[in-house]
Amino acid sequence: MEERRSITLDTKPGASLKLSVYSSTPPGEYNPLSDVLVVFLNGLMLHRAAWSDAISHLIDSRTRAGKPTPTLLTYDRYGQGESEPDPTDPPGTPYGHDAGAVVSDLDQLLTQFARTEYKTPTEGPGPRLVLVCNSIGCPLARLYAASRPPDRHRIAGFIFLDSMMANTDFVSLFPDPGKHPLPEGVSPEDLRHARQKFAEYFHPSVANPERLDRRNLAEMLPHSDKPQLPPGPGGQPPRLVVIGHDWDEFAEQCEKGSLSVSKQVINAYVNPAWGAYNEGLTHLTTTTKENKVKIAKGCGHFIQKDDPVLVATEISDLLDEL
After folding, report:
1. Which domains does the chain have, with CATH numbers?
2. Is pTM beyond 0.90 here?
């Protein structure tokens, strides 16, 4: 059952974050996953509510199978969904806090949550973490993991759902139409249109409602395959599942949606680059099975919306491994 809460971070007393907590185990009942916390990290477009269907499927399926479910936490970042704006953002500009600030906020949120829910001392190790992420939530998870001191490496697993390509401006995915030969079915006008649309929607300089400044993200994470994810609890490498979108479905959505970029252009330039990026992510740890990217059949970029059952199944499988 969802318990909706509001929390004010000690480090930012001027605003509150909205979060939802799910627990399927009655108080006092033994749960071998009671020291695990599953945290969901949103992209820019979908807020915490977008995880609810996957969470419902997860809890229902594990309950029917007689399997325990740990505590699950979703939250809206500052300026996103139901949360208030970041009180430290400067006025008069669409650019506010950057990914580094988001990581610091996440650390503070989990510190306070662990102190309340797990009775963890302020400097204690805290629960084992599983991070389930979509889009920009994936690079945020990588930055958060890299920020942990050695005595607080508590991330036991990651699930990356169609990670944002953090090291591109998106426009440069497409070559200059006047300087390169074009594949069959792609005209110079098609390329110019794609460059314009991706510049309008996805360039790091494009502002967003939560005022998350992405302009330095490529400098923070210039590579998809490094730095390595740090070891988790007990010094063991964290489990990692990398899931990419269905190329055909994504191309279809790009053509028919507000982008109106043709499938030929997406399949010639965007999907191959994204596939290579996802393949690089599988090398961030030694526990990615066969270093393979799983493809979410029939899903576009928002996998948790297009196939919540798949997301629930992947989370459940990872929990079984823990």
Report:
1. 2-168+223-259+270-321 (3.40.50.1820)
2. yes
